[in-house]
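sry for the spam today, last one i promise. struct tokens for design, 46 residues
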């Protein structure tokens, strides 16, 4: 098995992502609020 450089390992790490179901739901709601404001001037995140 050939050795990988640090840059290759870092790129491989950055490309790997796992989306948690709760984070996906929060992301969906947040992006919807940003794209389609319904009279609110701000999106509050706590």
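last one done:
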């Amino acid at each position: 098995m050939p050795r990988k450089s640090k840059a290759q390992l870092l790129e491989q790490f950055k490309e790997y992502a796992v989306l948690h179901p709760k984070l996906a739901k929060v992301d969906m709601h947040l992006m919807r609020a940003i794209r389609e404001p319904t009279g609110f001037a701000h999106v509050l995140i706590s």
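The longest helix spans residues 21-35. ok im logging off now
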